[in-house]
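User: Modeling request: complex.
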Amino acid sequence: MLKGKKILLGITGSIAAYKSAVLVRLLVKAGAEVKVVMTAAAANFVGPLTLSTLSKNQVLTELSQNDSWANHVMLGRWADIMLIAPLSCNTLSKMAAGACDNLLMAVYLSATCPVVAAPAMDEDMWKHPATKLNIEKIISFGNKVIPVGNGELASGLSGDGRMAEPEEIVKWLNDFFFQVNDLKGKKVLVTAGPTYESIDPVRFIGNHSSGKMGIAIAEECVKRGAEVTLVTGPVSQPISNNFKTIRVRSAAEMYDACLDIFPGVDIAVMSAAVADYTVAAPAAEKIKKNSDSLTLELTKTRDILKALGERKKATQLLAGFALETNNEKENALKKLHTKNADMIVLNSLNDAGAGFGHNSNKITIFDKAGNEYRFDTKSKTAVATDIVNTILKISHE
Ligand code: CTP
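Assistant: Request completed. Predicted assembly structure:
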């Protein structure tokens, strides 16, 4: 899959460096030729011997190693891409400033090949304004950044800042080398996440949607050349700045945003888990527990997918989702027809590894022409690729 590609892997001092061994193994297995440059701090987390054995090449760490001047210039010229993974906060700041105090930085500064980095750091460091600025700076220099993940961190806390998994990094590289810009010139609207319906100023009705699926679809569309707008409900997932994001809270806000954007797009993918009911009369003040029971009156929200289906032009493609627990196919087909969508992505809560919060998903897609496309359980990024491939297949028919 990466046969013949020359990858220069820069490893910096972050606990995620322990994953570099797996990353090198996967890259070599995919057919790539790998050379490793690491900082002294990285060598505290993963042994150069492990990496030289796996990459079948000498690992370079020191600027003052024999023949170092020739090394750093030639390495950057040898590579088809320089991948810095993990990218620590410290090396990020050096990249932004153009500092050159080790071999890795010398190679980076002299590299003529494209450079991509997979940052890894604790959430508070990741969210620091200086880090944000540094990321923006290195992107403005033409570098690419693989989005961070959300989950357990070395500090014991949980949040944004995890390095993308080695499998995702390999997929990113594969897309980078081989993906055609088959969505170039297309405008895409994607919805993601849950909606929150207020009960009073401190409480709401929501659901467990993490937004991961919609964010992965937005990333995939951008990677394939589309101009994307993501409308998302409240999510804690990191969202990259590769596309425009509109954050909303309630189903009504999501409805307004989508109806506003839809006339100008070619494709709309509605993956948000929109509340079906909202509180009829949210209390202006916090509700006190003065009585033994509390009854809330709920009213139906407007169906965004259906509203877009009613307004859809022949040139537009509309994709909806269906999350079902029973009579999956029948329910999905009903949604496809009643909402006038062009395709429905079904995920069943009965499938292991599928649905809310998981990093993986198992989908079946039904289209208007009566076709049924089944897919295995895959990571949400790989599922996003399947969804976009199917959208393109349907729109070409
Ligand atoms: N949807 C929407 N607006 C709503 C409710 C749902 O746009 N108010 C969209 C979702 O984004 C999804 C599709 O409709 O693409 C199906 O959502 P789902 O919750 O599975 O179905 P519902 O139509 O709400 O039907 P039910 O809850 O009865 O299964």
